[in-house]
Predict the structure.
Amino acid sequence: MAWVAATMLAALVLLAVAGPLVWGAAADRPDPSAVLQGPSTAHPFGTDGLGRDLLARVLAGARPSLLLALAATLLGTTAGVLVGASTAVVGTRTRRGLAALINLLLAFPALLVALFLAVVFGAGAVGALLALAVASIPGFARLAQTLAAGVAGTDHLAAARVLGLRRHRLLWRHVLPNIAEPLMLSATTALGTALVALAALSFLGLGVQPPAYDWGTLLNQGLDRIYAQPLPALAPGLAILYAALAFQLLGEVLAGGLARRGLPARPAGRPAAPSGPADDELVLQVEDLTVELPTPHGVLRPVRGVSLSLRAGEIVGLVGESGSGKSLTALAVADLLPEHARVSRRTLHLLGADLAAMTPKDRRRHLATGLAMVFQNPASALNPSLRVGTQLTEAVRAHRGTRRAEAAEQAAATLRRVALPPAVLRSRPHQLSGGQRQRVMIASGLMVRPALVIADEPTTALDVTVQRQITELLADVRQDTRAAVLFISHDVALVSGLCERVLVMYAGTVVESLPADRLATASRHPYTRALVESVPDLAGDRDRPLRTVPGASPDPLAPAPGCPFEPRCALRQDRCAAESPPLTGLDAGHRVACWHPLPLPAVPS
C-alpha cells in the first residue's frame, strides 16, 4: 500500500507541476471548427463549447484543484489546531468557553456550513477556499482539544508552568510537538475530503469561476451532454476520485506507520461530538449498566444500574463481598461476558468512543488497544502451550501491525519494566511462579499501551510479600503511563491503602462512593461500615470472635423492591423495605445510597 500511495501521490505532484506547462496552451486555445466534438484521435476526451481539448483541460486543471484543496486544509488545520490545543494552556473559564464553542460548532454539518459561507464570501475561488477552511476548523479543534488533554496533565508541562513560561511557549514547546503526528495524519486524509468539497462548490457555481477552471467546473460543463457523450463529465470525476483515493491511501500508510511505532493514530476526519458533557480526561464513563443472565429458573440480574467513571492517571477501587457483581461489571466493560448475557447501559464510553455505536470488529480493536485486563488467576489466563514471548507479542502484531522482531524487542523492554529478565520470553507459564505469571499478565497489558487497566483481584492467589510487589507495580504503571486503573478486590485494607477513590458494591449496585482515605474512618453506609469493622485488627482482643456481616446476600432471582441491604441492616425502617435509595451526594466526592446514612464516628479528644 505504501508503494501504491507513493506512486499515486508522485503522479499527482508531477501533474500539478507540469500540467499547465505542457498542456496549458492546448487547454486554453479555442477552435471554432471543433466545437462539442466527441472523443477522437486528435481529442481523446472530446472538446467543449469553444473547441478546447478536454483532456488537456483535465490535466491542466490538476494544479488549481490540488492547490485550492491544500490551501483550504492548511488554513483550517492551523486555525483549528491552535484553538483546540490552546485549551491545554489557558485558564479554566476560557477552556470551558472554548469547549462549549467547539461543541456548538460541531452541531452543524461542515458541508452545509461551507455552502452557507461560500454564498456569504461570494462566488469564486477565494470565497470557496475560505468557506471550506472555516467550516473545517471545529473538527480539527475538537481533535486537537482531545489530544492536548493527554498532555495537559503531564509532569513536564507542570514543570514548565512552575518555571513561569508564557502560554505561547507552553503551546509551541510542550503541547504541539506531542500531538503533531496524529494531527498530520488527520490533515492528510482531510486533504482528500477538501478536494471533493471544493469540486462540489465549483460544480454548484460557488467555486472557481470562468474563464478559470478546476475539476469541479469541468464536471459541471460536461454534465449537459452526459447522456450523449459521458466522457467529458466522467473524466474530471475520475480525476477527483483518483486524487481523493491517493490522499486516503497516504493516510492509511501513515496510520500504519504510527501504529508500528506505538503512537496513537487517532481517527481521521471530522471527530464525532460526544453525547454528553465534554470531559477530555475521562477514560471510562459508565452509566446505568445492567447485566442479565437467562437461567432455567428465570432472569438473573447480578449487575443493576451501576455507574462509574475513571480519569486518566486515577486508580479506583471496587470492593464488596463475593457475588456483589464486581467482576461482572468489569467483564461487561471489557465486552467479555458470555454470549447469552444481555447488557444494557445508558452510556458506555472508553476514551471518548461510544462502544455501543461501534461495529463488533471496531469495538474489539478499540478495546484491545485501549484496555488491558489483569485477571485473578494468571495460570488460567495464560495459554500453557505457548511461550511467554508469543503471548506478549500477539496483541501488538494483530492490532498495531508490528513486525515480529520489533515486537520481540518491545516485549523484552516491557518485561524489564515489570522486573522480569528478557529470558522469560522463552519460558512457558508453568515454568514461572505465581508472582512471575502475574507480572507477565501486567506486561501483556502494557504492550498495547492501554489507557485503562482493569485488575480483577490480581493479588488474591499470592502471598503477602508478592501482593505488595504487584500493588506497587500497578501504582508505578499508573504513575508512569497515566493509565487509569480499576482495582477490584474484596480486601478493604488493601484497597484503602492503594486507591484514591473506592466504590462499594452490594447485590449488583454501588451503595457508596468515597475517597479512599475516608473509607476506614468516615464511611456512612451500614454495609460499608460493616465491611470495615470485619477487617481483623492485630491490636484487638483475641478472646473475642471476629466481626462479620450478619445475614446473607439477597436472592438475585427475586430482588426485593427496597434497599438490597435492608434484611441485614440493624437500623432498617419501613421506608427501607419499600423504596430503593438512590446514590446521593453527601459532600464533595462522597455519595451514599441509603435513606438513613450513619453519622460520622466521634473523633477522640
About this structure: The CA atoms of residues 365 and 489 lie 27 Å apart. The radius of gyration is 31 Å. The longest strand covers residues 282-295.
